[in-house]
Amino acid sequence: MPRTLLIVDDNEINRQILCNILSSDYTVLEAKNGQEAVDLLEENQQLVSAVLLDIIMPVMDGYQVLDNMQQNPVLSKIPVIVTTSSTALETEKKALNLGATDFVAKPFDADIIKHRLGNLIKLRETSALVNALEQDKLTSLLSRQAFFVKVAEIISQHEPGYFIIASFDVDNFKLINDQYGTNKGDQVLQMLADIFSEGFTPVGGICCRVMADNFAVMYPRSFVDDERLYEIRQKASLLDGSIPPITFSIGRYVVDDLSLSVDSMYDRASLAQISGKGRYDLNINMYDDSMRIYLLREQAIISEMKTALEDNQFEVWLQPQYNHSSGALIGAEALVR
């Protein structure tokens, strides 16, 4: 399916020349003034791949079109090539400040227009693909992989112990989905993402949604005792008041070993979070090596289970149970050792 272009020019001859050059490669929309252009863009904002825009026009000029496009998050990402016969530097500066991407001079050179359009559209689509891969679709936070890459870049520029990586897990999130529906559950995750982003970004932190209801945040260690951190947790708990306050299990890892991969750093924060889960006297847990040692010991036991069973290393012991009134033996509890 051919990509769609919008040609905006009050001169019909100019529009016809551009259509003749481009219509074999693109679906072309036409507007004879800025107001028509804005209306067409609003109607086709998901379809238009680029705009060829004249500046001097009746009703609404090209500068106003650029200004309108910048007010719309979708339209602001569409590349705009200004078509101009003016050589005035101020014209180009003003158009660039308002979001123009490139310029082509009148009279038109077909090869130049085709090459510049093709390059700009390819650049935009590549950028959109990169952004899609880097962003979590639901919350617009960083994806897990993009978060790990950016964390690695940032921590390499600071001394050990400067940052903390924290794992935030919503307690009993499944109940929110069960009681209020998955749409409400998604809204809760989006509100949490906004709160985390607005709270941590100003202090040099970055956030991501790792999966489901689990978030990861990296921020300077000096922020731990800041009152603003408490305020972030309070906002995240209360949200907009449409559901009862939620609670979190939080694990923290001080980034003191820069030889570790970011995956391993996050795993340690996650291990601290899991170790404190269900303990309502301790909803924030700091990682220490004893957690990892305990986990490794537990995994070693589990991995040896099969061999132990095959070698008959387990013995069944019966612990008798008595009727306390009569003293009669009434059964036994089986224990495996």
Description:
- It is elongated and about 110 Å long.
- The protein has 337 residues and is an alpha/beta fold.
- The strands form 3 sheets. A 5-stranded parallel beta sheet has the order 2-1-3-4-5, sandwiched between helices. Strands 7-8-6-9-10 form a 5-stranded mixed beta sheet, with helices on both faces.
- The chain has helices at 12-22, 34-43, 62-70, 89-97, 110-134, 144-155, 173-180, 182-200, 227-238, 262-276, 289-310; strands at residues 4-8, 27-31, 48-54, 80-84, 102-105, 163-170, 206-211, 214-220, 248-254, 284-286, 316-322, 329-336.
- β11 and β12 (329-336) form a beta hairpin.
- The chain is built from 11 helices and 12 strands.
- The protein folds into 3 domains: 4-134, Rossmann fold (3-Layer(aba) Sandwich), CATH 3.40.50; 144-287, Alpha-Beta Plaits (2-Layer Sandwich); 306-336, no CATH class.
- α2 (34-43) packs parallel to α3 and α7 (173-180) crosses α8 (182-200).
Q: Could you estimate the helical fraction of the residues in percent? A: 40-55%
Mean pLDDT: 89
Helix-and-strand structural type: alpha/beta
- Count of helical regions: 11
Proportion of β residues? 15-25%
CATH superfamily of the largest domain: Reverse transcriptase/Diguanylate cyclase domain
Rg measurement, Å: 31 Å
Biggest sheet, spatial arrangement of strands: 2-1-3-4-5
Run of helices and strands: EHEHEHEHEHHEHHEEHEHEHEE
The CATH architecture of the largest domain is: 2-Layer Sandwich
- CATH fold group of the largest domain: Alpha-Beta Plaits
Q: In terms of per-residue confidence, which ranges show pLDDT below 50 for 5 or more consecutive residues?
A: none
CATH class of the largest domain: Alpha Beta
Q: How far apart are the first and last residues' alpha carbons, in Å?
A: 69 Å
Question: What is the strand tally?
Answer: 12
The major beta sheet can be summarized as: 5 strands, parallel
Domains, number: 3
Shape: elongated
